[in-house]
Amino acid sequence: MNYAIIGCGLIGKKRLAGLPAGSRLAVACDTNLARAEELVRLAAAGRPVVDFKQAVVSSQVDAVIVATVNAALAEVSAAAIRAGKPVLVEKPAGVSAKQIDGLIALAKKHGVCVRVGFNHRYHPAFLKAREIFESGVMGELMFVRARYGHGGRVGYDKEWRANPKLSGGGELIDQGIHLIDLAHWFLGDFQKIDGYATTYFWKMPVDDNAFLSLRTAKGQTAWLHVSCTEWKNLFSFEIYGRNTKLHIEGLGGSYGIEKLYHYQMKPEMGIPDTQVYEFPGPDESWRIEMTEFEKDIQLQRKPDAGLKEAKATLQVVGKIYRQSGITFDSAPPKL
């Protein structure tokens, strides 16, 4: 497949590196032409442009990857959908559930496949955890407890993620989106949403910490904490079933070696049978997700995760911000 990549920063480069064998870059687009030119050099293919509307209608493009700042994700995706091009849009796919509703309507009208980039689902520990969960050995799930955080860097409060007009929020809409999606993936829809987002440390108009308590109709609960005041990068995701506990920690790199601990309760209880899986290799989640995207298109199947899942996460984010008295003065573009 021939791709247009819209947004040629860090994530655009990761998506380029994750293109399946045989696929190639046709168009690189960024408001900063130099960044688009750099992506073309890295790919040794394609042409650089600055106008996303030009990129998505190109006859050389089969599918579009949208990796812009959050505030532009929905607008660019909408243009690609109208052009009839399958879209992989990075999380959170927009800055509000209302924006996602607009994309859902457009995708249905034009019959276009839209996948949302929740690459954490494709980390090996989560793929293994999902396999164990679907085997039925865990019994009914009871709750999830998860933490995700980093410590920022000098000047972090001056970057685009700290500008609500570009980001649509802070740590909650950034790393928090991943935890909400993963918890939703295992537990299902959340009927009761409580929590608090605030700014403790960074001098910026968006949140640097958020604490969530999410409950399903059955009373299953997800307790989540996301932070960019986590001075040692951390990822911890625990899934508790009646018979089993699964604990994922680390994501590779500065988050530590990715591991999955499988604790299986014995009939007599006591110390559980324990199996530890380690995944020390490079992060292949981006490539696996891109391969699944191409299968979505070829098989004409519903993406997992898609816009429905993105809407579910943003409904949580929006409610937590409202409960916390946080509003952002940014009018999203019309789709």
Describe the structure.
Helix 4 packs parallel to helix 5, helix 5 packs antiparallel against helix 10 and helix 8 crosses helix 10. 35% of the residues lie in helices and 25% in strands. Strands 8-9-10-7-11-12-13-14 form an eight-stranded mixed beta sheet, covered by helices on one side. Strands 3-2-1-4-5-6 form a six-stranded parallel beta sheet, with helices on both faces. Strand 4, helix 4 and strand 5 form a beta-alpha-beta unit. It has ten helices and 14 strands. The mean pLDDT is 96. It has 335 residues and is α/β, with parallel strands linked by helices. The protein folds into two domains: 117 residues, NAD(P)-binding Rossmann-like Domain (Rossmann fold, 3-Layer(aba) Sandwich); 166 residues, Dihydrodipicolinate Reductase, domain 2 (2-Layer Sandwich), CATH 3.30.360.
CATH level 1 name of the largest domain: Alpha Beta
Poorly predicted parts = none
Q: How are the strands of the largest sheet arranged?
A: 8-9-10-7-11-12-13-14
Output the helix-strand order: EHEHEHEHEHEHEHHEEEEEEEHH
Do you know the CATH topology of the largest domain?
Dihydrodipicolinate Reductase, domain 2
End-to-end distance:
26 Å
Structural class: alpha/beta
Please name the CATH architecture of the largest domain: 2-Layer Sandwich
Q: Report the oligomer.
A: single chain
Using the CA coordinates, give the radius of gyration. Answer: 20 Å
Biggest sheet statistics: 8 strands, mixed
Shape: globular
Count of separate structural domains: 2
Average pLDDT, rounded to a whole number, is 96
Instruction: Determine the number of helices (DSSP H or I, runs of at least 4 residues).
Output: 10
Strand-residue proportion? 25-35%
CATH superfamily of the largest domain: Dihydrodipicolinate Reductase, domain 2
